[in-house]
Design brief:
- The structure is a single chain.
- This protein is α+β, with helices and mostly antiparallel strands.
- It has twelve helices and seven strands.
- It folds into two domains: about 240 residues; about 170 residues, Alpha-Beta Plaits.
- Strand 2 and strand 3 form a beta hairpin.
- The protein is flat and about 100 Å long.
């Protein structure tokens, strides 16, 4: 009986075979990991492109509805015809936000919001034409719209959470199968398997930690994954998403609740950006004169309305000048800031003063408007006559290299503002530096 011959492979072939098997396992693990990471990358890109834009639009919807309510209430009280046009612009902006949501999302609650808002607009049309709408009916319709917005926001949040959970699930699945495939070749090439598994595991764990840190509010977290591959690109997307979330949070927290204009943090950031980029610009410090006496005489409600209207007027004028880099901020109280191209500063000042002086008489009674002043008591308890509210604008022409910080510019602008207020009526001064003529 002949003995069966055993298959003997040379060590070199066994080694080559082991590396081939190990390479196949590693290649399979690599392909699966890249496919999973690509899917995660698409998910994050979808969140960054669609969901964040939709979240911004939802915030705009809430603000737009509040603005429409305020305008309708003002019309019910004041009956000013120009408020109808203001309300129409606000309603148009609201519809633009809804159209953006239609393009970027598939929300089941969106049709209800559209229907609710159309019903609210029908009431406002009746209010503007017949003036026979009861305040409670208008308030009820507005509450219905606001409830629909909240439901929309809740659905949007749920969809976002589902996407994040799907991404996390895909990440876990990718990690598990990558490790299984990798360890299948460990017996033949321990060193190669350990290096590859360690590399992928470290990167995936960092991405998982980045997801948790960003979800917890640490928007500046850096997973410290070098760029150059899909994992690095995904890490960069995480960082960009975190930065965008931080900016949205800062805008929401810093904005003036009265005028909805950016506050001090955004103002300082805008100035610092221009200083860093060595851009020439004009820093305009705007202040309302005799505002305290107006507040004491007419009360804080009308004074607040005046501040809101002044902020809207300033923003509208600056927006109409066509400078895409222009910035309008609300420091607080009756102080505003405009940062604009220095070539447009003079036009901006003249137009703001013209429109402001034309607007201000509407905020006074017929008697006070005819008299041209109101009677009151100054800070020292002395009775005196106060002129109608005017606006003073101090403009500092900032050239590259002249100032190094936003604080220096703010101090210099304050000095120029004191000089402007020495003159009566609405005035402006444009200087190259504080103290110059």
């Amino acid at each position: 009986m002949q003995k069966r011959k055993r298959l003997h492979l040379p060590f070199r072939r066994k080694l080559i075979l082991s590396f081939v098997i190990n390479g196949a396992c590693m290649l399979a693990a690599l392909v699966y990991a890249i496919a999973g990471l690509t899917t995660m990358h698409r998910t994050v890109g979808d969140i960054a492109h669609n969901d964040l834009a939709a979240a911004t639009a939802t915030i705009t919807l809430r603000d737009g509805m509040l603005a429409q309510e305020r305008t309708a209430r003002r019309f019910m009280i004041l009956g000013q015809a120009e408020l109808i046009e203001v309300h129409a612009r606000q309603a148009e902006g609201f519809k633009k936000s809804i159209n953006l949501l239609k393009e970027r999302t598939q929300l089941s609650t969106l049709p209800h919001l559209i229907t609710s808002h159309d019903a609210y607009l029908a009431l406002t049309v009746k209010l503007f034409t017949e003036k026979s709408v009861h305040e409670s009916a208008l308030k009820s319709a507005a509450v219905t719209v606001e409830t629909a917005i909240e439901r929309l926001r809740a659905e949007q949040q749920q969809i976002l959470e589902q996407k994040l959970m799907a991404a996390k699930s895909k990440e876990a699945q990718t990690s598990a199968w990558a490790l299984v495939l990798a360890f299948s070749g460990v017996a033949l090439s321990v060193v190669v398997a350990v290096v590859l598994v360690y590399t992928f595991s470290t990167s995936i764990n960092k991405l998982q930690q980045a997801t948790h840190r960003i979800s917890a509010g640490d928007f500046e977290h850096d997973p410290q994954i070098p760029a150059g591959d899909e994992i690095g690109t995904l890490a960069q997307d995480f960082m960009r998403m975190g930065q965008r979330l931080k900016e949205l949070e800062q805008i929401s927290l810093d904005a003036s609740p009265l005028t909805r204009l950016p506050g001090n943090i955004a103002i300082e950031r805008s100035i610092t950006k221009r200083l860093r980029e060595q851009q020439p610009f004009a820093m305009c410090y705007l202040d309302l004169d005799n505002f305290k006496s107006y507040n004491d005489h007419y009360g804080y409600i009308k004074a607040s309305e005046l501040i809101k209207e002044a902020g809207y007027l300033i923003h509208t004028v600056v927006e109409g000048l066509g400078d895409p880099e222009a910035f309008v901020g609300h420091i607080g109280g009756d102080d505003f800031v405009v940062i604009i191209n220095h070539m447009l500063a003079k036009t901006a000042c003249q137009t703001i003063i013209r429109d402001f002086d034309a607007m201000i008489p509407r905020y006074y009674s017929e008697h006070d408007r005819a008299a041209g002043f109101i009677e009151g008591v100054d800070r020292y308890g002395v009775a005196r006559r106060f002129p109608l509210v005017t606006i003073s604008i101090a403009v500092l022409n900032c050239q590259p290299g002249k100032y190094s910080t936003a604080a220096e510019i703010a101090t210099a602008a304050a000095e120029v503002k004191d000089r402007v207020k020495e003159s009566s009526g609405s005035n402006y001064i444009i200087v190259r530096e504080a103290g110059s003529g």
